Amino acid sequence: MTRMMHLQALKHPNRPHYEWSGERLEQNDEYVMVLCQPGRKLIHHTKKSVFIMDNTSLELFF
Q1: What is the pTM assigned to this prediction?
Q2: What are the b/e assignments for 15-41, b being 16+ CB within 10 Å?
Q3: Is 28 in contact with 37 (CB distance < 8 Å)?
Q4: Rounded CA gap, 19 and 11, in Å?
Q5: Which residue range forms the structural domain that includes residue 35?
């Protein structure tokens, strides 16, 4: 199983808002933990822009 995953945040009603990628560190029935490294692209659909993120983030999705 690949550890890289594509993430997408949606706006109501299911319209794309943000997209980015990260490395899945842990996944179970309660949450998914994702590590996002500097240099990743954040696609901002609402602003029709692409940003390069220069920070590390640890993201937890329930």
Answers
A1: 0.85
A2: eeebebebeeeeeeeeebebebeeebe
A3: no
A4: 12
A5: 4-61
At 46 the pLDDT is 93
Do residues 45 and 19 touch, judged by C-beta distance below 8 A?
Answer: yes
* Beta bridge mates, 51: 42
Number of domains in the chain: 1
What is the structure's pLDDT at 1?
58
Triad 37, 40, 41: Cα angle to 5°: 155
Residues of the chain with pLDDT under 50: none
How many residues make up the chain in this entry?
62
